[in-house]
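Sequence in, structure out.
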Amino acid sequence: MKYMLSLFFIYFIFIILLELKLVTMGMFHYYNLKVSEVFIFDDFLINQIKEGAIIKSHHNDELKTLIHKHFNDRNIAYISNRVMSYSVDPMTYKETEQIPNLVAMAIIPKTKAMRNSAKYERQFYKKPYQIFDNLSAAIIWVHNIIALKNNVVENI
């Protein structure tokens, strides 16, 4: 059942992206990791942490590996689709922000408690970090941030 929900989620995201003309039939990959499901698109990834997980700084190793494999040195953004209950060691963000081509982080909390946690965690991440009510708004924001960062880099 969880696998079917993941496939539905992937399909739903892809349809939104096509409708918003934010993605073409480019790169798309899915990873079912021990603590999360990762959906990789052309210039961002969506991470859904699994129920009960405790995220610590060593989880950045998997993130760095995926970013290097799929994005190399291209600017990308991270979207956290928080649909499950889990905890994050806020010190994880200090290491996450050291990933040079990870230029922004968007959080989509499901509950008020998750939103409050995301607000607290914001203070540990110094790059662009925004909290959204829905995936569409988060995707639009990360595309704008990436376009801005790419334009600044190209003009230097």
